[in-house]
Amino acid sequence: xxxxxxxxxxxxxxxxxxxxxxxxxxxxxxxxxxxxxxxxxxxxxxxxxxxxxxxxxxxxxxxxxxxxxxxxxxxxxxxxxxxxxxxxxxxxxxxxxxxxxxxxxxxxxxxxxxxxxxxxxxxxxxxxxxxxxxxxxxxxxxxxxxxxxxxxxxxxxxxxxxxxxxxxxxxxxxxxxxxxxxxxxxxxxxxxxxxxxxxxxxxxxxxxxxxxxxxxxxxxxxxxxxxxxxxxxxxxxxxxxxxxxxxxxxxxxxxxxxxxxxxxxxxxxxxxxxxxxxxxxxxxxxxxxxxxxxxxxxxxxxxxxxxxxxxxxxxxxxxxxxxxxxxxxxxxxxx
Amino acid sequence: xxxxxxxxxxxxxxxxxxxxxxxxxxxxxxxxxxxxxxxxxxxxxxxxxxxxxxxxxxxxxxxxxxxxxxxxxxxxxxxxxxxxxxxxxxxxxxxxxxxxxxxxxxxxxxxxxxxxxxxxxxxxxxxxxxxxxxxxxxxxxxxxxxxxxxxxxxxxxxxxxxxxxxxxxxxxxxxxxxxxxxxxxxxxxxxxxxxxxxxxxxxxxxxxxxxxxxxxxxxxxxxxxxxxxxxxxxxxxxxxxxxxxxxxxxxxxxxxxxxxxxxxxxxxxxxxxxxxxxxxxxxxxxxxxxxxxxxxxxxxxxxxxxxxxxxxxxxxxxxxxxxxxxxxxxxxxxxxxxxxxxxxxxxxxxxxxxxxxxxxxxxxxxxxxxxxxxxxxxxxxxxxxxxxxxxxxxxxxxxxxxxxxxxxxxxxxxxxxxxxxxxxxxxxxxxxxxxxxxxxxxxxxxxxxxxxxxxxxxxxxxxxxxxxxxxxxxxxxxxxxxxxxxxxxxxxxxxxxxxxxxxxxxxxxxxxxxxxxxxxxx
Lengths: 335, 522
What we know:
A: Metallo-beta-lactamase, Chain A; Rossmann fold; six-stranded mixed β-sheet; 7 helices; globular; B: DNA ligase i, domain 1; 20 helices
């Protein structure tokens, strides 16, 4: 159990800071919420007041409309919330994503939110935030997850496009973050042909472009009736859920690709009917997670969600204090 | 290099379509040098003789490097031992690409005691996908959905060669098949050194009563088409081999037949399980297939026999260019010298016109008959599916009206369409799943089925959708076997959706008892 004088306490609504009377990434509507990033399971509508980065606020407005919260405040520098000093620091996960640093009850706490340390040109890079208590995610916390260089995964896609010029390549990628990262990686690999996108990606891609990211020639993946051949040899991005919809029927003999950290595991890829798994993750893999704990060297590590058993075992082997929060409501990778 | 081979395995594993797999294989054969491509071909066709590396050896290796609890958690998540080890193995040195030939040679020549250390050292030098390929190679289970025949087919496509010629040569060649690849690239055709080699099998084309009307009945002979497996039995200069019709050597599973091959020549026939005069259902034969050794008990309970159709070589004379009628006479003579318990003759059926044959076909004397074979008297024995000489006139398929229960999306051209269906029959007031079908329907029917699934989904299990049990389809199938793996206790052969029965309400679909009544009697 967590004592009432702990710096943070897990509750059904989410992670709660008693001294400042606020929640971080609450899964239910609360009076005061600090939001790490714009993925739907972390950033929900209906809070009284929201504190987040300017970009996350904008993304929430895109998703939920302008009235998603009663009051909102853009995080800049150190801010006092209910007498507690908080600050936001880049997490490298998606545009606007942040780790939240909280100083409460004599402790420096870093809540990572979702983060990755691998190079991600689609947002500001993760930076270390020294702390006494590290509250980390553990989505890919198994030693089997060592995510490869994303450039190499993009190469696989381009090789397949070259090998099957008559087929469309349908790349499943989550609308916020992953899609734009895949597009940028393709551009970095020298691919300058138009990339076709599902309607659900349009708004967020537009926002990335407005924020100065170069996504190149993007076109809507719409098709005039009876012109399947139009997409032969093309790369088309869509949220994975679109593959189950009749939407996918418009493409000529498509190669189903999926950009996700889960694609490391064959059974996961096959289960989804993926022909070309691309291991591209916006989360820390096992080496990065263990490296983060080692480098920050916190007095204690708390694990929010994911595969916490393995990282707890690792902490035990390393002689580090750690405990699971078992927060519910966060998806493995939101769709 | 192991890297290129690993890449091939990965592509094959994720490519569901046959055509796509062929393209990957052909591309690999084109890009890779000897002996690597030949060794890869051997690995895919089961032709590599490797010391078998056991799962317990691998577990032992990994336990020295990784905490047991972390490994257990990982294995639990990944679900495949070789894959878990490939992913979790700590990277000691930088990955290095090693020649496939060296790795195979090392696995073949290393003694059992030294093997674990050798494997561990190799894993240290590899990248994860290479470790996976290496471990799969070492444990002998590639499981990438490529049959030996598909691999040979890819070789034929790669070199513009005739698959039958490759199959004929196959058993005389050894890995890494350098001579075969040289032939594929325009060199000389290798000379097979095989004793008792396989000869390309003659195949038939389907026919029906309407098509037969154009042919003169008196020019043809007819016999039953038995439901076993078509084989070629070759006994030459002391070597005896039993081949499947694709040229796979299945001798090891049928020592009883091999022992009875007391002749000099090559004959064509049906392999059956026969107890005295009674031919057992196909199911019984299946229990003997694919074995490396057969127990005495199984030999007694499931005795195998050949029912002879044709004669290719006899007493060193090649009969294949002779007309079928003449070969048949020679076969009738030959069979008198063989053990009747193991070798008998497929008898000819008397008929004056096609209608008379139709009557016979409608009511065959045994369930273990798939239909009729109709062969031109003048037909030579030619490898492959040659039109105009041999015809098969199969029995009408069995039919049931079943209710759609579950659907799953297809691949490739069917991406986005629900095209794989599970259907069920009534058992009391419950619907019991009895089979799966993913073809038989037209494109238009597929669109209708897809629409039905989307509009009538009642539950989802991952990629599978359960649908409202209201859609009745006619399912056609070629035969029925008892099966302990299926909930219904039976397994259909080649089930397909032959018709949508939108005229029929679900409660009028067939009952399981109607299906069970179609089982061959024991």
